Amino acid sequence: MKHLRTFWLIEAVAKAGSIRKAAEDMYLTASALNRRIKSFEEEFGSEIFERLPRGMRLNPAGELLMQHIRLQRIDMARLQSQVADLSGVRRGHVSIACSQALLPYFLPSEIARYRKDHPGVTFSVNVRDREQAERDLARFNSDLALVFEPLHMVDFEVLHSIPQPLCAVFSADHPLSKKVELRLRDCLAHTCIFPAQQYGVRHLLENAFRRSSITLSPQLETESFEMMRHYVLEERCVGFQIPIGLKTEQNSPLQYRALSSKDIEVGQLYLGQMRGRTLPVASARFAMQLVESLSRYGQD
Questions:
Q1: DSSP-assigned letter for residue 181
Q2: pLDDT tens by residue, 144-203
Q3: Residues 78/83/87/91 CA torsion (nearest 10 deg)
Q4: pTM tops 0.85, yes or no
Q5: What is the pLDDT of residues 108-137, one digit of tens each?
Q6: Is 167-265 in CATH node 3.40.190.10?
Q7: Helix, strand, coil distribution of the chain in percent, nearest 5
Q8: Which fold, 90-163+268-296?
Q9: Distance from C-alpha of 81 to C-alpha of 58, rounded to nearest angstrom
């Protein structure tokens, strides 16, 4: 395992951008870390860092090595997970890149359900927009992605998808709550708060505006769907989100309603992984649970 330790040290220097900062993070002296890096470069047969006046930066050889290091970590995690399976003890780590809509209800419920049977498994949930989520998969920073209307999908292997109509979100006493069929023009007659450009919800809205020759002039826009849900109660304006991130209870001050498909297309929420990658056991099993739950979504 000694070579793995060296790999982690190299990664720490690349991340910190300097020997001194990385040494502090790894609880080593700067001289000891520098010797370790130089010893590796001699054995490797090539320098992997550019020595700059104010720090260290990976050179092209170092970038290739860093890709190898990430793959080594993934392979080791998968092996450890498989060995744990042999002993009947489910362990491992699951990393997920996801849209904000999955945070309030869906993912907390799914993770808690999985950990009830497999308490040895740990999770990290990384909030990402649709482009960042795909990049996370490609860089092996996340095992799985749950993302609404992803951008490229070149290396995105779809495990499951479900339709998500765009919903208008407003206070329970808002005039729109009395509408039987909710049209986009009804919403635009009121102050609106829009999600920022990088989100799939905004993408669908802009497509609808282009088709109807409407110019989008946001009174407010935000990167936070949580802020949107709160703000519509303050100004009695209208926000937009997908239903998997919304829940209304009896006497709730917040209401939502699907917009008419005459005005705006129904989007897709995708569960996916990096194309061609073999996931660690814990991540693969959790993906199977998510596929099952998404298949039932809206039927309960």
A1: S
A2: 999 998 877 778 899 999 999 999 999 999 999 888 889 988 898 899 999 988 889 998
A3: -30
A4: no
A5: 999 999 999 889 899 999 999 888 888 888
A6: yes
A7: 45, 20, 30
A8: D-Maltodextrin-Binding Protein; domain 2 (3.40.190)
A9: 31
